[in-house]
Amino acid sequence: MSIVQPDQPPVALGELAAGDQEQLSAAEAGYAAAAWAPNTLRGYRADWAEFTTWCTQHGRSSLPADPAAITGYLTQLATAGAKVGTISRRLSAIKFAHRMHDLPDPTLNARVVTVWEGIRRQLATPPDQSTPLHPPVLFDVLDSCPTTWSTKRTIANPETDLGGLRDRALLLVGFVAALRRSELADLNVDELADHELGLVASLRHSKTNQHGNLELVVLPFGTNPAHCPVTALRTWLSQAGITEGPVFRGITRGNRVRPGRLHPESINTIVQRAVARAGLDPTGYSAHSHRAGFVTHAHLRGASDRAIMHQTRHRSPASVGTYVRVESAWVNNAATTLGI
């Protein structure tokens, strides 16, 4: 295979090398197109484009990539203040591009490995973590969700605020089910099943489940109707007239439900706006605050790591441990019994 020169356009990520593409049947091509999640490919394309641009500017080949080009690129990123996670993602894109063209992985070169390890050691910082959203703060945020909507024409007969109903349902379902923002956005009505104890959500895909293995997440009835995720969800679906398709959707300025599902990034905005309505600083809160809040609150109430993992679907207790925040550091700690 000829080397791609720096002034040539970057390869199309997610596609097999040209020689292999000719051998794919229509059915094979269909399966090949479904090999990676769209978000994954979008991220790889963006990162690969940046690397190829850097190579062009510095007179380097991007495919196959010279180890010196990779270390020079990594060094520039690190010097410019890029985070370790960002640099790691760029390395993954480089590795992916070479893999798709049946080329040796240049990120395994000793020079690349050594420079990358040095960057990791020098720039390592605690991972950015969303502020956990759990009771009693969660209840304050729920109470701040609007219940009525009106304009000058409807002020005498205000309507139910559909945005407020949606936000309540999203906040409670996100917290109790410990769902990621992508899982909230992807949730469909036909994935919800009634149970004598509440609802069961059948998730077909998630960040750690790319092959469609069915994952069950429970939504139990709450003891307080005002804080019950099942009640909030059913109320939202009923008032919004949603009987199929996406569960969580956008709301127009005219208080009407949009047909399409929410974008995952929009869920960040919804959470931050809800927190701000409660008079709190939204900085640090995000869609991940649901999941962090569930783990933190469940841990504080004595749930075992295994029980928490049953709901969050984490693969290891170590992953759960990263969510145990400052709040739990005081629990059963001998430092509080010194009597000084």
TrEMBL record:
Keywords: DNA integration, DNA recombination, DNA-binding. CDD domains: INT_Cre_C (cd00799). It comes from Branchiibius cervicis. This is Site-specific integrase. Residues 137-336 form the Tyr recombinase domain. Gene3D superfamilies: 1.10.150.130, Intergrase catalytic core. It comes from the Bacteria. Residues 22-102 form the Core-binding (CB) domain. InterPro entries: CB, DNA_brk_join_enz, Integrase-like_cat_sf, Integrase_catalytic, Integrase_recombinase_N, Integrase_SAM-like_N, Phage_Integrase-like_Recomb.
